[in-house]
Amino acid sequence: MKQPFLIAGTIFAAMTLVACDPSTKVSRAEASSAQPPGQKPPTTKPAYIVFTREKTLDRAELEAYWKEAPATLEGHPIKVLSGYGPHEVWEGESTEGVVIAEFPSMEAARAWYHSPAYQKAREHRVKGAVYRGILVEGTTPQD
């Protein structure tokens, strides 16, 4: 993986070439993308966290978790796609509830999950219920 400063230097060099050499055969679209000619911009794949609540153990602990959890989202690029709505289990054991959250990348999802604020709220969740949490990388239109 390239270091961020190397990528930035490459982008700056490409922009400088385009700006200083009018004979450069680069389209306006390529020049404005800040990528070297012929090179596609890096794509970041979205990531999804799927939580399933398998069994409630202590309702009071769950309620404490539900009270604290929303504040853990602040400052994190998270989009809750589904939260404890109606669902059907087509295969496997029944589940009490499902939450699906989208992040712009696996790294962003990990940053939220491992944040001190979420880890503090999580203490109530693990005391309150048996959950399963899965982090999965999504696809991009190019895939």
Question: Can you walk me through this structure?
Answer:
The protein is of the alpha+beta class and about 140 residues long. The protein folds into two domains: about 1-40; about 45-135, Alpha-Beta Plaits (2-Layer Sandwich), CATH 3.30.70.100. Helix content is about 40%, strand content about 20%. It is built from five helices and four strands; from the N terminus they run H-H-E-H-E-E-H-H-E. The protein has helices at about 5-20, 30, 60-70, 105-115, 115-130; strands at about 45-55, 80-85, 95-105, 130-135. The model is unreliable at about 1-35 (pLDDT under 50). InterPro entries: Dimeric_a/b-barrel (IPR011008), DUF1330 (IPR010753).
Features:
143 residues; alpha+beta; Alpha-Beta Plaits; 2 domains; 22% strand; globular; disordered N terminus
Summarize the structure.
By secondary structure, the chain is α+β, with helices and mostly antiparallel strands. It has helices spanning 4-20, 28-32, 59-72, 106-113, 116-128; strands spanning 47-56, 79-83, 97-103, 129-137.
Q: How are the secondary structure elements laid out?
A:
Elements lengths: L3 H17 L7 H5 L14 E10 L2 H14 L6 E5 L13 E7 L2 H8 L2 H13 E9 L6
Kindly state the percentage of residues in helix. 25-40%
| Unreliable stretches | 1-33
Which CATH architecture of the largest domain is right? 2-Layer Sandwich
Strand content: 15-25%
Count of helical stretches: 5
CATH topology of the largest domain, anyone? Answer: Alpha-Beta Plaits
Helix-strand topology string? HHEHEEHHE
Distance between the termini: 20 Å
- Please provide the count of β strands: 4
Largest sheet: 4 strands, antiparallel
The CATH class of the largest domain turns out to be Alpha Beta
- Tally of domains: 2
Average per-residue pLDDT, rounded, comes to 80
Structure classification? alpha+beta
